[in-house]
Amino acid sequence: MTPLRLGYLYGLVAYLLWGFFPLYFKLLRPAGPMEILAHRVVWSVAFVALLLIALRNVGFLRGLLRRPRTLAGIGAAATLIAVNWFTYIYGVNSDRVVETALGYFINPLVVVLLGVLVLRERLRPAQWWALGVGALAVAVLTVDYGRLPYLALILTFSFGGYSLVKKRLGLPAAEGLFVESAVLSLPALGYLGWLAATGDAAFGHVSAGHTALLVLAGALTAIPLLLFAGAANRLPLTALGMLQYVAPILQLGFGVLIFHEPMPPARLAGFALVWLALIVFTADAVRQARHDRRLRLAAAVPPTAAVAGSH
């Protein structure tokens, strides 16, 4: 299998797994969102630690301890991903899967906005147009919900901020996930200990299957991230960008068709505006990628070859 096809396979499997997360998190009830989050953190640390030991790749920890700025960045990334995970679990288990799907639909637009606000990047006209349509969509959905779709906005800004911090840190997927989860593991273990002491823990008190599903949270957190990293190393950014819509499409379908969440006309109109903005955004990204590729190919042609080829 070629690296490109392998990249598509890794990316598709990663986004399919993320797309099926609503079905999985529904199975973890009656555990509350905070207990689910704590187990997700603790078992992620355990799973990735075993993976790193198997790969004999634990020496990176010594280097990190001598880089305080990197450690501070990891702390920020850990906080942002914890907010994202908790919000998503809460949204799914409070029957708001459609709103969580909205958060991941508008995530590409928010990442672009963060690029402007934080990195001072300049946007092309089509990108500004897409952002404007996205803002209009949020306004329409605010009227429909009678409030800001705050779950969607928390999800997208927390993940956008997490992506920005991760880009600056430049850590490999497994090592980064291990350190982020390790930062969160002490408060997570403390919370689980408190639940056990008060008799409020669901872990071990519902069924053997429920306990196994909570333990599985570690692997189900790490595997899609590792697959995504493998895809990112093999695919053009535009291809990766188009694959990212697989997960929210599945989540939206589960929310409407399986969990029977309401989709009134005004809400559908808001989603339609989001999809219009994404079409413009994706088409512009594809056009720019083709333009950049032509420029690279032209620059790679030696001047003599260019002259010879012109006859």
TrEMBL record:
It is found in: Cell membrane. The keyword Cell membrane applies. The chain crosses the membrane at residues 7-25, 37-58, 70-90, 102-119, 126-142, 148-165, 177-197, 209-230, 242-260, 266-286. Residues 6-142 form the EamA domain. Keywords: Cell membrane, Membrane, Transmembrane, Transmembrane helix, Transport. The keyword Cell membrane applies. InterPro entries: EamA_dom (IPR000620), EmrE-like (IPR037185), RarD (IPR004626). Pfam families: EamA. It is a multi-pass membrane protein. Belongs to the EamA transporter family. This is Protein RarD. It comes from Micromonospora lutea.
